[in-house]
């Protein structure tokens, strides 16, 4: 994913994690293990500002579109009338 969605990114192995740098930002907590939890991928994409559409090509429904807020007309508390 990094090759296609974050061209020019670099990574290195640290003591307990992989450190990925892209776009002037660094994500330091990607585990070394082969099985990486979905939350790490989501946080990596958000933190490094990787295009969501590109990341979705590789991870599918793992990265969902941001949920829209309900557009209900919610009124604040009344004055006790």
Q: Please, could you describe this protein's structure?
A:
- The protein is α+β, with helices and mostly antiparallel strands.
- Helix content is 27%, strand content 21%.
- It is built from three helices and three strands.
- It has a three-stranded antiparallel β-sheet with strand order 1-2-3, with helices on one face.
- It starts with a helix and ends in a 22-residue tail after the last helix.
- The model has no long low-confidence stretch (mean pLDDT 83).
Question: Can you give keywords for this protein?
Answer:
81 residues; alpha+beta; three-stranded antiparallel beta sheet; 21% strand; 3 strands; 3 helices
Question: What order do the helices and strands come in, and which of them pair?
Answer:
Layout: H1 2-5, E1 10-13, E2 17-22, E3 25-31, H2 38-47, H3 52-59
Antiparallel strand pairs: 1-2, 2-3
